[in-house]
What does this fold into?
Amino acid sequence: MAAKTGWVRRCVRLYRPDRNPLRRRSDRWEALVVAFAIGLVLLSVWPVTLVSDAVYRNGLREEAAGPKSRQFVVVTLVETATGVQQWQRQDGTPVTGHVTPFTELPVGTIQRVWVDNRNQVTIRPREHVETVLSTVVSAIGLELSVIILVFLGYRAARFSLDRGRYAEWTAAWAVAEERWRRHRPT
It folds into this structure.
């Protein structure tokens, strides 16, 4: 625990605004970039929450529409060439319809499928677990995307600042070397 708080203290000490005369202008810019990056990540929580809420509500709408408008039926293939299937509704009346996914199966094959009110084969209704999972995945995925983009922006800014620091460092060494040459005894 102490190691974690020590790291946080060092980071705060490194990036906090102060009047330290040894702090370079590039150090102040880096502190500003870090504060901006943290602010962007914190501000991104609000749009990510809105998008995740929209995904959740859409999933709930699909859940609500699913079981009422869809029926799970046992289909028996009647004709092979056209893909005509026959099944019974819940009230027992037979229904014949065209089902393309099963055209290559032999006559008499029994399959279980979901059909809608128009007797068209459709996908199965959405379950609540799928809604929650898609919401969590979208929230985590979006937030991670924001964090990665902000981190890449931070690294690009840091790279640019480091190049400037190295140039200043090289210039300072050149000045120091010139001074040392003039003061060197012969």
The beta strands are 70-79, 84-88, 94-98, 110-116, 121-122. The mean pLDDT is 80. The radius of gyration is 33 Å. The longest strand covers residues 70-79.
